[in-house]
Amino acid sequence: MTPLRITAHSVVSAVGVGRQALCDALRDGRSGLRPNDFGESPVATWIGRVSGVEDVRLPAHLREWDCRNNRLAWLALTADGFLERAVAVRDLYGADRVALVVGTSTSSIGATEDAYRRLLPDGQYPEDLRRPIVHTPHSLGDFVRAALKLEGIAVTVGTACSSSAKVFAQAERLLRLGLVDAAIVGGVDSLCGSVLFGFNSLELVSPEPCRPFDIARRGINIGEAGGFALLERDGRNGPWLLGYGESSDAYHMSSPHPQGLGARLAIEAAFERAGLTPDDVDYINLHGTASQKNDDV
After folding, report:
1. Would you say residue 132 has pLDDT above 60?
2. How would you write 82-97 as a 3-class SS string?
3. Neighbours of 41 (CB within 10 A)
């Protein structure tokens, strides 16, 4: 594949808003985990909660999409100067020539949970949550599309843990086929009861801060975060997207292949597309859970 330049990117996580906050936390060895205080009956675990999401106020013309997940998306859009860069690219290429591909596993299901908790005696949603767009899997994509005033291809990817990795592959295909001139990709997932209680029911949640690769590890911790990246065919600054790999071994609904077949196929495909060998790689960022069905690199 032809490499693509990542000309802008942003991040929001439990350690703070923006790339500098993340760099500082990595340098200082500081975790964003804290005892779970989310919801009326918190699961006994630790979580990565982004501070201040509850206080975010969306612009008036975007209030229809108001929910925790879209507030988190707005934080990520406005971090690191990303919104300004995205608007400039939209104006350069045209609103119909910039693709939007975003990943999320639960989207704004937290708003739907709240609606069911507050059902009226006649079975209707409370009036403030009678907004159909926040009760769909495409809520995130629809919100970002409206926020950036884009008019082209817009896709929301929902493939569990691989969602925000797959967006880069989809964006590359759109650019390679000449369907768009640039692509805005991203991923946003917020804390909600479905995820916390779901992973707890699978007995995967640790009652203490997680310890990856530790022989005495007791499970994972759930967190929330958001981030965006802008892909163009060229540019003066920023890292390159050199390759990617995708696979779906369909081994089991909630467990990966015991020999790691899916991961191996994805890694080999990524090397092939990038024209690289394992000896060319200096750093590997590992991510995944026991529920991951698709593998993406």
Report:
1. yes
2. HHHHHHHHHHHHCCCC
3. 6
